[in-house]
Model the fold of this input.
Amino acid sequence: MRLPEDGKPDTVQVWFDADRTPYFYWSIPEAQGITAMGLIAEDRQGAEESLGTFLKERGLEAIEFQSAVVPMHRFELTGNVQTSGRNVFIVGDAAAQVKVTTVGGVVTGLYGAKVLAHTLLRGGDYRKELSNLKVELDLHLLLRKVLNRFNNEDYDRLIDLLGGDLKRIFEERTRDELKQSFLEMIWTEPRLITLGAKAFLRSIL
Done:
């Protein structure tokens, strides 16, 4: 769609609206005066309705619509499948090697493919070799289960906390290094635990 008048061609924007989606809306400039805007939703109908309302409220009109189904990681990790006496190995989206916090899977999918290549060359158990990736994806899934319980006030509070040393961690670590930064983030900003715990408890009471 056309880049909004208040949009910047070198700036990605993200909006959180827990009343419409447990994920987020985004705007990523692609070309001169053009931006890709979208959201993640649990189903296609919900995505169309939420995105349509979001655009209408901002006086925006889409040039075209695109959609895709993304498989989401679960705690039980998919590895190789026995089919007619043969080992069939799956990687990437087919194996749901996707970070469910951001629903990104390029880096994790490539990592899964690298692990498979090394396993085939050296021999070994593909599932066991994927243990590091599984821990990474499990942490993202754990965070997603907490974020799904956030309301808009929780997101405001979370953004308020993203400063100082916590900001430094995000600048030094990528979103594909959660395993390395998870405990460091909690140690640096213990209020993250309080925020997540309050959101979780509120959702079950």
